[in-house]
Amino acid sequence: MHPMKTRDFDFYLPPELIAQLPAIQRANSQMLCLDGTNSELADMMFADLPNYLRADDVVVLNDTRVIKARLFGKKSSGGKVEVMVERVLDNQHVLAVIRASHAPKPGTKLLLANAIPVTILAHEQSFYTLLFEHKKTVSELLDQFGHLPLPPYISRSATPVDEARYQTIFAKNTGAVAAPTAGLHFDEQMLTKLQEIDVVTACVTLHVGAGTFLPVRTENIHDHRMHSESFYISDETVNAIKHCKAKGGRILAVGTTSLRALEASAAKNNGELLPGHGETKLFITPGYQFHVIDRLLTNFHLPQSTLLMLVSAFGGMENIRRAYQHAITQRYRFFSYGDAMLIEKKT
C-alpha cells in the first residue's frame, strides 16, 4: 500500500455549514447514523440515541472542564500578542501557543491583560513555556483575566451564553482548552433516559489541548507528530467496561477524546484496559485495531484533521467520505457547535 496522504482526507465544506452558535436546546441536534459494516446511513435526531442502546451497554463520557485559556497582551517592545494556554504545568508555569506578528524568542517579556508579567522561558515546536510572575496562581489568573477559547473557525468573540454552552453538563475536572464537543449534546433529560433503560454511564478525563486545532502539515500522514494530552481512567470505569464486555454488551465512546483515552490505555498494555493517569500521543489512522470501543458518538470534523483520520479508521474511509458528502447535501451543521454522528465500527 502507498503511504496515506493528508490530501486523502480533504473535502470541500461550504462555510455556511460551520455552526457559529449552539443549538437552542442542547439535545436539539440532528444525528447521522452510520453502520460501518453494512455502510448504511440514517438521518435521525440526537433524541433518538436511546433507541440505539440496550440495557447494560456502557456510555463513556469525558468529564474534563474547559479553562479560560485565552489571554491578550503585548510584548515589552509594544507588539500585540495572543496567548492560548495549552496546559497548566504548575502554579506559575504554563505551556502555550503564542500568536504575534513575529515569533517571540526565549527571554522575551510579556504583559498579559495589562496585569500579568510573563517571561518566555523556552520554545519547542508549536509551544512556548511561560513563567507567570504574579502572586496569584495561574489558575486564579486565568479565572480572573482569561477568555473562553472558542475554536478558530467560530468567527466571533465568546459571550456569556458560551460560558455555559461550551461546557458539558457533566464537566468536572478542570484542564481542557477545548470542549469534548460530542458531550455538548447531552442534557439532564437524556442522562435520565439512559438511566431508565439501564444503560451505564461512566467517565474518563482527557484534557483536550490546543493542539487539537493544529493542522496536519505533512504530506504523508504518518510523518505527523501528535501533541501530548493527559488522561485519567478510574477503577470504576474500567470495571464497568469489563463487566459490560463479559455480558456481551457494547461500549459507546462519547467523543474522540473519550475514545483516545480508552484506546491509549489499552494500546500501552497489550490490549488490556487499566486504570490510572497517563499521557498519550496516540495517532489513530486507518488500519488501527481498536481494543475497547464498539461505537462512537462524535461531531463532524475539519478537513485533513487528525480527528477525521480517527473516524475514518473507525467507520471506514469510504463510508466516512460518503457520510460527510451526505451530511453536506442534507445541510448538517459542522464542527464544535454542530450536529452529531453515531458510528458503528466497521468490522
Secondary structure topology:
Blueprint lengths: L29 E6 L4 E6 L12 E5 L1 E3 L3 E6 L4 E9 L4 E8 L8 E4 L3 E9 L2 E6 L5 H8 L14 H6 L7 E4 L11 H9 L3 E7 L22 E5 L1 H12 L4 E4 L1 H13 L7 E5 L14 E5 L6 H10 L1 H13 L10 E5 L3
Parallel strand pairs: 1-17, 3-12, 3-14, 4-11, 14-16
Antiparallel strand pairs: 1-2, 5-6, 5-8, 6-7, 7-10, 8-9, 9-10, 12-13, 13-15, 16-17
Helix pairs in contact: 6-7
Task: Give an account of the 3D structure.
By secondary structure, the protein is an alpha/beta fold. It folds into 2 domains: 6-66 and 162-344, QueA-like (3-Layer(aba) Sandwich); 70-145, Thrombin, subunit H, CATH 2.40.10. It has 7 helices and 17 strands. The two termini are 20 Å apart. The mean pLDDT is 95.
Short description:
By secondary structure, the chain is of the alpha/beta class. The chain is built from seven helices and 17 strands. The chain is globular and about 60 Å long.
Q: Helix fraction?
A: 10-25%
Beta-strand residue percentage: 25-35%
- Indicate the low-confidence ranges by residue numbers: none
Mean pLDDT: 95
Q: What is the fold named in CATH at topology level of the largest domain?
A: QueA-like
Number of strands: 17
Order of helices and strands: EEEEEEEEEEHHEHEEHEHEEHHE
CATH class of the largest domain: Alpha Beta
Largest sheet properties = 9 strands, mixed
Q: Can you tell me the CATH superfamily of the largest domain? A: QueA-like
Task: Specify the number of helices.
Answer: 7
Strand order of the largest sheet: 2-1-17-16-14-3-12-13-15
Coarse structural class: alpha/beta
Radius of gyration: 20 Å
Distance between the termini: 20 Å
CATH architecture field of the largest domain? 3-Layer(aba) Sandwich
What general form does the structure show?
globular
Supply the number of structural domains.
Answer: 2
